[in-house]
Amino acid sequence: MIHFYKRIIMEEDPILTSLKILIIGESGVGKSSLLLRFTDDQFDPEMAATIGVDFKVKVMNQQGNRVKLAIWDTAGQERFRTLTPSYYRGAQGAILVYDVTSRESFTKVEDWLTELETYSTNHDCIKMLVGNKCDMEAERMVSREEGQKCARKYQMMFIEASAKTKEGVQCAFEELVEKVIQTPD
User: Fold this and answer.
1) pTM of the entire structure?
2) Which listed site, 5, 140, 168, 176, has its alpha carbon 20 to 30 Å from 123?
3) What confidence tens digit (pLDDT) does each residue in 14-67 have?
4) Using an 8 Å Cβ cutoff, are 22 and 34 in contact?
5) Distances (CA, A) of 113 to 16, 34, 57, 154, 156
6) What SS3 state is found at 123?
7) Phi, psi angle pair for 69, to nearest 5°
8) What are the Cα distances from residue 164, in Å, to 3, 18, 34, 69, 107?
């Protein structure tokens, strides 16, 4: 029996690489909900605000290779901002989230990019802009075109998503990881 167990472990594909991914944006835009949907395929409409930083690990297959993602979910509230600079260090990818039903969260995108540029030690950090809550079409305050235009302006990838319905969530992480892997260093 031990021999059989050993063979199974050895046949498992090794992890190609480990990546540090950040999720940043204003409080209430759904950063933690996107993370929970991606890692555990769950949605909690009563999710409490993140205090400080949350952290999850997910192993995914990308282009036939196993990639270990260390995903850091940062608190959006101003009072926790002093905690976050150290978490920017070494990140290869960043998902900047705004809420399509909140014009204010969209106008703060530039502030979050400035913070990322200030504290990131990786100048090749791949950035993706995610307009979350796209399932709430009736309350929409930011058009898809505005999101695309902002992403182009700051050389970011772009997608709209809904942690509630799953739309775009898997795709956002997969596309970001693929781009990170294709980027030298």
Assistant:
1) 0.85
2) 168
3) 666 899 999 999 989 999 999 999 999 988 877 766 655 678 889 998 877 889
4) no
5) 29, 19, 24, 9, 10
6) coil
7) -105, 130
8) 44, 28, 8, 22, 23
